[in-house]
Structures
1.
Amino acid sequence: MTGSAQTSLNPIAAELNQRLESAAPELFAMLSAYGRRLYFPKGILSQSAEAKEKAHRFNATIGIATQGGGPMYLPSLHSPLAELEPADAYPYAPAAGRPGLRERWRGKLLRENPSLEGKHFGVPIVTAAITHGLSLASELFVDPGDRVLMPDKLWGNYRMNFEVHRGAEIGTFPFFAAGGFNGPGFAQALAEAGREREKLIVLLNFPNNPTGYMPTEAEAEGIVAALLAQAEAGTRLVVIADDAYFGLFYHLGSRSSTQSLFAALTGLHPNLLAVKLDGATKELFAWGLRCGFITFGPGRGETADEACEILEAKTKGAIRGGVSNISQLSQTLVERALDSPDLDAERGEKQAELCARAERVAEVAALPRYAESWDVYPFNSGYFMCVRVKGVEAEKLRVHLLEQHGVGLIATGASDIRVAFSCLEVDQIDPLFEVLHQAIQELV
Ligand SMILES: Cc1ncc(COP(=O)(O)O)c(C=O)c1O
């Protein structure tokens, strides 16, 4: 890995620049360096847009969850919409978010991550969902040329944030080995990157997009041990846990861990800062409300409260200077839902529905007759699963599926196809994999 990430221009950006330079050279000359690097990636959003038009049969591209032809939603969030006090909707919210919401989310973190008990960590600060949390984390901790280490199965938007915007270098290591998380590969990549740098940013996303994998407890312990060893070796580590799909654990095959890495990493070593990003978007099925959180877990327990206060002041400055504050209405709705006595049952019901889909996907995708078409990557959680297709290029297959079969899936790599079972009903799963198999055999 070299410093090339900063200097090499994405071909789509280069083409936009060229067109602008010939259409309006004066305007092109006005662009900032970031303005020149910017482009709209041909990633999930553009593939989804194509699918919206053409996937008349199944559309398993989008990162939301659907049910009965509409978005999945929780009555606890939806029902107060008509009876809200104007004061809970229209005024500006504080820069760090509504205090009641922040305290409730902190309570939720403690309930769902018992290892946090007795540890010193910050009060979650409200963000415009996780994408904004990622952007705040990079504003606080990433300089141009910094290295951000993450597994090679990743959410494509990380590149926009860390590489295109901040000019950092993304370094990856293979996500899977021996049917599970590649612990040795992670430790090795960490040690190698740590030899070259005094500071590293590590980004781990579990349950993972695109694979739907959540590590086992032993794997999680291995990850924590590798990070501790690197912190002890003297590397300053900012470890970002992107917990977008937290809580959606189905334990397919065997039990996965059910806690965020943030819990084990908080208070672990002075050289390690844990940063938790999560939100109502996926966990409470409220994608468009844009309500998320950034929470800090410093390594030095004795001064953690002071450190969190300072980081909060800096984060508030970044929010104020960036988007000013986050929607009061969205925060009120999430705060109310967190108070609802029905919320746990409602979430449980949706989780059971997604689990039933995941179980059916696991059965069907692994049928022996499909072995000639793909290998299934391990998955046990979240919204998605991935297959590695055989003998055909993923992008070519994606387009063929859309054009010839009206089926929308996402190509996430040269031979990887992502299936969002979050937007498939159980009875759509068998025919979807059958048509995927048929399409592959048409192309090989
Ligand atoms: C891994 C991951 N992180 C973050 C996000 C962004 O979530 P939000 O809608 O909360 O910004 C997504 C959304 O697709 C995701 O898959």
Note: The radius of gyration is 22 Å.
2.
Amino acid sequence: MDLAKALDERFSCRGFLDKPVSLDQVRALVVQAQKVPSWGNTQPWRLYAVGGAKAEAVRENLVTAMQAGRQQVPDITMPASFEGELMDRYRDLGRALFKLLDIKREDHNKRAEHYAKNFNAFGAPCLLFITVPRGQTSYVVLDAGAFVSALCLAATDQGLATCVLAALARYPDEVRKVVPIPNEEAILIGVALGYPDPEAPANRFRSERLDLERVLTSFDL
Ligand SMILES: Cc1cc2nc3c(=O)[nH]c(=O)nc-3n(C[C@H](O)[C@H](O)[C@H](O)COP(=O)(O)O)c2cc1C
């Protein structure tokens, strides 16, 4: 698959088949994702890949914590909400996804059910946790972000699907109960990895993008 096709075909998968991903597959993705640039080649990212019973245990811990209404204490501050046009787009995304899933605004049960699915990583058989060292500048997050993007594209290239999930990083202590991630590292984000379920309605969803004119300003070109 060429890069343009992978960029085109990658999407946030919200329904996975119960089909495992092997360590060899994950290793191949990481080797590719590691090619991204980083400040001074510092390569601040680390990746913890969790499958099988351990992935199940993490997903269960997270769903339980969420459903108990436990306070979320992520290692890295997360946005409580967004401002201005960012908030508009954030809302638009939720509305469009819920419309496709036929989840009505007033249907609190269905909304809660969908929210819980986030913490269950939409049933993904493999969970990836990406960390950065604590006490550095925001640029380690830039570098790790590039790594995560490349990882998702490499997965698409391999016929796998991903969903970058803040939900996986909202209760880092629950993750650490199962996965020994050192405290000197901050869990930046999680990624659900697996084979996409073609029957899952949520996988028909595709998000929109801004017009080029809104994004690009050029001079003397
Ligand atoms: C940092 C980050 C956190 C995200 N967290 C979630 C999440 O918790 N739940 C979810 O369903 N999608 C999550 N996403 C996926 C975004 O909603 C998705 O990338 C965006 O809507 C664009 O759609 P696309 O990935 O299908 O192109 C997250 C994406 C990023 C980059």
Note: The beta strands are 46-50, 126-133, 161-165, 185-194.
